[in-house]
Design goal:
The chain is of the alpha/beta class. Helices cover about 40% and strands about 20% of the residues. The strands form two sheets. The protein has a six-stranded mixed β-sheet with strand order 4-3-5-6-11-10, with helices on both faces. A five-stranded parallel β-sheet has the order 2-1-7-8-9, with helices on both faces. Helix 1 packs parallel to helix 12, helix 2 runs parallel beside helix 17 and helix 8 crosses helix 13. The structure holds iron/sulfur cluster. The site of iron/sulfur cluster has 16 residues, from helix 15 and helix 16.
Length: about 375
């Protein structure tokens, strides 16, 4: 398949593995930011074929996984209301809130619908003027532009029964927070190529310089990832720390000006809590005052949310790269994709789901298991 097969070529992959091996003289820890990259790495066994000195740390770039529990609980409360049609992408329906999920709300009679675009939700609002239609807008810089455009369209067309439950997050502040953590082991980042397709690369040089960390914009196919690793290791071995674009077929330095303009019109930057990680300053977007009437939190006044995280789930440590999924005592036992205890087991981009799906089923040692609170 064009643009896929040539980026999985085994001969070229072997050459890149050889180059990485030849470059590597000491241990290095690299973080791939995006959950899509994590799945590609685990699926193709890239981490197992790298030199022992190269450790890949799986980052927090899974939108479903980092959506705060409080926001999930707000979604559950709004979706339970009889006047509401609650629309979402399918992977949010099984994300556990405090005790239940959107599937449970649906089974109890809530009008919860899976859609494939926020514009589908807008169409439902147009077709059902007597109902309140809410779209669950989560994700990174990649999903924010179409959600922004949908709110823009709703306002332009005067569709007043549509609103957005917003939980958008931004990658650069997360990189900053990871580097500021006292437990940080990351020495280089593979930045998410699709995020940079939208936002460009302008936000990264300052981070690379301040934290003395190489940042390589990387794609998602095996050769993309290997080339990102090769460039990151080459910088580390040379003592350099700059931003490189290893995904030029998709990423321009300026990103997509049209998408960025839409984001700037509809959203404003805000502090945002990340599930399992906590509050990260200026790491999210919310609707700007001009579009506040389309904010579902504002419209439905969902307050007094009492959240309760699973006491077993260690997804916060997984999301910060502090443990591998199979080091959680619940992995593959109480927690599976059919019965997830945490969001990282639900999402198709979650690290726990990737380890389960691709059979990384090593059980933790007794000592690791006993440390679970
Ligand atoms: S395996 Fe399940 S319980 Fe353990 S960290 Fe992952 S999602 Fe949480």
């Amino acid at each position: 398949m064009k643009y896929l097969d040539e980026f999985s070529d085994p001969v070229l992959a072997r050459r890149l593995f050889d180059e990485i091996r030849a470059l590597t003289t000491q241990p290095w820890s690299l973080m791939e930011v995006c959950g899509g990259q994590t799945h590609s790495i685990i699926r193709h066994g890239i981490d197992q074929l790298l030199p022992d000195e190269i450790q890949l740390i799986h980052g927090p770039g899974c939108p479903v996984c980092v959506t705060p529990l409080e926001t999930i609980d707000k979604a559950l409360e709004i979706a339970s209301r009889p006047e509401v049609v609650f629309c979402s992408f399918g992977d949010m329906l099984r994300v556990p809130g405090s005790g239940r999920d959107l599937f449970k709300v649906k089974s109890e009679g809530g009008d919860v619908r899976v859609v494939y675009s926020p514009l589908d939700a807008l169409r439902i609002a147009q077709d059902n003027p007597d109902r309140q239609v809410v779209f669950f807008g989560i994700g990174f810089e990649t999903t924010a532009p179409p959600n922004a455009m949908t709110v823009y369209q709703a306002k332009k067309l005067g569709i007043g029964n549509f609103s957005l439950l917003v939980s958008h997050v931004r990658v650069p502040p997360a990189i900053d927070a990871i580097m500021n953590s006292p437990d940080c082991r990351v020495q280089a980042f593979l930045a998410a190529g699709h995020v940079c397709t939208v936002m460009g690369t302008a936000e990264y040089p300052e981070l690379a310089e301040r934290h003395k960390v190489p940042i390589v914009v990387t794609g998602f196919e095996p050769l993309d990832i290997l080339e990102g690793i090769r460039r990151a290791v080459r910088q580390l071995e040379a003592g350099r720390h700059v931003v490189e674009n290893a995904y030029p077929r998709a990423v321009q330095p300026e990103g997509s000006p049209a998408a960025r303009a839409m984001l700037a019109d509809v959203f404003e930057v805000t502090d945002r809590a990340w599930r399992g990680i906590g509050m990260i300053p200026r790491s999210g977007w919310r609707l700007s005052p001009r579009y506040r009437d389309y904010d579902a939190e504002h419209r439905f006044s969902v307050t007094d949310i009492d959240t309760q995280e699973s006491t077993v789930c260690r997804s916060g440590e997984v999301l910060q790269g502090l443990i591998k999924p199979h080091e959680c005592a619940a992995f593959g036992k109480q927690c599976t994709p059919r019965n997830p205890l945490g969001a990282t087991m639900v999402s198709s981009e979650g690290a726990c789901a990737a380890y389960y799906l691709y059979r990384r089923l090593q059980v933790p040692t007794t000592q690791e298991a006993s440390s679970v609170g």
